[in-house]
Structures are given as C-alpha cells and as structure tokens.
Amino acid sequence: MDRKRFLKISGSATLFTLTGGITWLLEGCMKKSMKIAKAISVRTGNFDNPLRLPSIVDGSIGISLKAKKNTTSVIKGKNSVVLGYGDSILSPTIKVNSGQNVNIDFKNQLEEISNIHWHGLIIPESMDGHPQNKIVPGSSFSYQFTINQRAGTYWFHPHPHLLTGKQVYKGLAGMFIVNDVEETALGLPSGEFELPVIIQDKRIYSDGSLNYSPEPTDVMNGYFGDHICVNGSWSPYHNIKTKIYRLRILNGSNARVYDLSFTNVSNFYIIGSDGGLLAATQTVSSLMLSPGERADVLVDFSSIALGTEIYLQSNSFNGGESQGQESFKVMKFIISEQVAETFSIPTALSTFTLIPSTSSVKTRYFEIANDHSGGHGGASSSASIHKIGGKSFDMERIDETVTAGTTEIWEFDNSNGPDLHPMHLHGVHFQVLSRTGGRGVILPHESGWKDTVLCMPGEKVKIIMTFPNNPGKFVFHCHNLEHEDSGMMLNYKIT
Ligand code: C2O
Ligand code: CU
Ligand code: CU
Predict the structure, then answer these.
(1) Is the dihedral of CA 186, 190, 193, 196 positive or negative?
(2) Closest CA to 398 of 472, 292, 324, 328
(3) Distance of CA 26 to the CA centre of its chain
(4) Is the separation of the CB atoms in 274 and 443 below 8 Å?
(5) What is the number of the ligand 1 atom nearest to the C-alpha of 157?
(6) Is 424 in the pocket of ligand 1 (CB under 6 A)?
(7) CATH classification for the domain delimited by 49-184, as one of 3.20.20.100, 3.30.310.50, 2.60.40.420, 3.40.30.10
C-alpha cells in the first residue's frame, strides 16, 4: 500500500476517535504498533476437522436465542472463546414456511449492546434490527413478524452501531431458511443432502483466541482472517455420498470476498441467490461471493469415484490492492459411500418478472469510490474513511425518502475506487440492472432477486427495485463490516 495513503488514513482515523467515534479503533491503534500491515496470508490446515452442522429449529413454534459467550473448538484440539446464539459458535438454523408467524425471544447476555437484524427479510421497521434498536446487556426483545416472502436462504446477525463487525466476527450469525410450495415442488436435495456452508475468515492466535482489534489498515481494507472457517470450524471435511447435494452458501465474513470453485467438479449449478430461486439454473465453473451474499447451488457428486477428495477452494482474482492475491482451500468433501442417484438438475426453477427499467420513477446516484489516495480530503476534512455519496452514518438523519409501491433505480459508482464494496439494502429486494467497468457484466448468480451486490474497484452498478408497502426507516450500507462500522451506511425512509 502506498505510504501517502496510509498516513492520511491514520490521521483521519485518529480524528474520528477524538470526535467521539469508535473507541475500539483507538484501542487498536494504541495497543499495537502502527505498522503497515501486509495482506494477511491464509493458513491451510489438514482438513481433519469434522464439519459442524447447526441444528435446525422450527421458527414458527416460538424460539429463544441468547447472545452469549461460549467456549468451543474452532481449530481442532484448541478451545476458543467465541460468541454464539446457542451453546457454541454461530446459531441453530431457523427454518419457516412462507406465510408463517415467527416469534423469537432474544436475550442479550453480552456485556455490551446488541440486537438482531434479519438480513433479507422484509419485515416491519421495528423488527428489522436498525442500529437504533438497542438491546442493552441483560435485557430481552421479542422479535415477532410474519414471513411474507418467497423461499430463500436468508440470515441474521447483530447490527448495533459501531459493534457489528466485532460481534459477527466473534461468532454471532445464523441462517434463516424460508420454504414455500413453489420450491418444494422441485423436490430439491434435502436432509443430509442439503448443507449450510457459512464461510468466514478468522484471525486465530496460537492459544486459540480470537481477537478483534482492528488497526487503521484493517478499517481501511476490512478485517481479514488467516483461518478460513466453515460453520465455525477451521479446515473442515465432510463425508458425502455419490449424490447431488444442495449447498446453501453464505459469505458471512467481515470483509473477505471468495471466488469459489470445486476440484474434480468442473461445473456446478446455481439455483438461487439472496432472494430465493433464480428463474433458470445457471451452470458455472466459479462463483464470486462477497460478504452478505448467498448462493444456493447444486453440486453433482454422483459419478465421482469412491474415496475421491474434493476441495471447495477460493481462487485468486483481481481485487485491487486489498483482496484476491491468494488462492486457498476452504473445505474438503470425501466420497465415502456409493448410492444410486435418481434426481436430475432442473432447468426451469421459478417464474418472476424482470422489473422493466422504464417503470422507474427516479434514479439516485451514490458515489462510493472513497478515493482517499487523491489530492483532496485527508485528515482535516473528513472524520471517516468510507462514505456513501460523501456522507457518513448519522443515526437520526434521513438521507433518502422513497414512496412505497414505486420503482427506482439506484446507481453505486465505484469507478474511481480502490476498495471492494458489497452494497446492501435493508427492507427491499432488488434486481441488478447493469454493471459497467470492471467485470462489466451481470453475473449468473445476479440474475434473480438480490439484497447485496458487489461493486468491485472500477465498477458502476445499477439496481432496480419496487419499494414494498412497509413504511419506516431502514439502512443501506456496505457489507464490509469495518466499512459499515466506520460510517459507510445511510438511512432511507419508505413513506
Ligand atoms: Cu447483513 Cu445491515 O446487514
Ligand atoms: Cu440486511
Ligand atoms: Cu465498503
């Protein structure tokens, strides 16, 4: 990284803390030497840690989630103190049918404020986990809402102001699966053939501890880990049969983007994205997934020889100066039993209409480049590194006002930006209309409903959406959680 840029960043970060901002940033700078951190390298293990499979709870019967400290083994043979919504890291998976009512009693047993945001669910403002919804230590909140949306792989995580990155990193997150009749009719692989794959990178020290103390460079690029975990276990394996598997993949990392593929399996099939099923199956050889995004994929292991070891890996990619330099293995599948497969990959999946761009009543433009290496700005003019349209998050200020039932186009412009920004909107699902610059195309997994879209350096991405009849104040932000916590988030209001 260029030194001039670093000096500006560290200067503005210090100013930010002095103005009453994030105190952990100050701790991070003061406790550790302010050296220029080189991109952290990934450590690959022996893939001898059995894949953890979260238990599944029925969301319609009334459940309780406690955010608390637990001790569990993330690295084989070592104990780590983590956070979780159950008795270890992460959470049981919540499963409900579309149309059902959900009643979740949340208790905050942490020593700091928390709350739960239901990422991808379209629910009332008071239930959405806006950062102003603060659940103080020791108290409870009852999240009650009706699932009025299609089947999909949604998820949940804390969203307290300035603490989201830390709490998610330490283990607070879970999958929220919605099923419906359209999806059920496809007879997709289920039970042992349907696996959650929550990918997260953690910085784990030799004693097993997970510290979260971002230095200025971590705030600038995001907090990267050197251990790639799946479902809370580092270097895991899973024994599988010669069948077609459904993997519900969630990038639950704070900042890391993965370009996923499989060894021994040249193509796999994307059937769903953030907002549920695609219209038609997309055959791909790799899949780039940024923090917050989900992909529902079918992988055909049916004709692979017994004993074969298959790795899910992340390939190197052009991710500017902060990401993509390394390729590494994520987890191992071992073909351990031969059975007959009768299911075949469906081609048509779902019917929904593509929102015509002519139906948009307004286009909003957001500069997200945050080109802090340029000649302007610097320590004296800005309190935060990452902004949207030149603004940093203000809990009270309404930045955009939209009308329920109307369609708009929003444009995120990262043309001149050095960083990757997965942009996420609460309270609405959108379709990706165009991407110019950078990768220059709409990717296969972006052909359906989305709530998070990656804007790589050099890219301008247009999305289109119709705001639901669900009035209230919601946030939209970068899902790089260090960017979000350092201010790359705004409020919008549906009226
Ligand atoms: Cu998963 Cu406001 O985010
Ligand atoms: Cu969200
Ligand atoms: Cu960002």
Answers:
(1) positive
(2) 472
(3) 26
(4) no
(5) 1
(6) yes
(7) 2.60.40.420
Are 325 and 269 in contact by the 8 Å Cβ rule? The answer is: no
CA of 71 to the centre of ligand 1 (A): 26
pLDDT tens, 344-361? 999 999 999 999 999 999
Q: Are 199 and 287 in contact (CB under 8 A)?
A: no
As a whole number of angstroms, the distance between CA 220 and CA 294 comes to 24
Please give the DSSP secondary-structure letter assigned to residue 402. Answer: E
* Average pLDDT of the segment spanning 360-373: 89
Distance 490 CA to ligand 1 centre (A): 12
CATH number for region 357-494: 2.60.40.420
DSSP classification of residue 319? B
Give yes or no for a contact between 357 and 264, defined as CB atoms under 8 angstroms apart: no
Residue 31 pLDDT grade (very low, low, confident, very high; cuts 50, 70, 90): very low
In the block, tokens 């792989």 appear at 153
The stretch 119-124 carries a mean pLDDT of: 98
- Cα separation, 360 vs 410, in Å, equals 10
Task: Indicate the fold that domain 191-337 takes in CATH.
Answer: Immunoglobulin-like (2.60.40)
Whether 260 and 313 have beta carbons less than 8 Å apart is answered as yes
Q: What's the length of the chain?
A: 495
Domain-by-domain residue ranges, the chain? 49-184, 191-337, 357-494
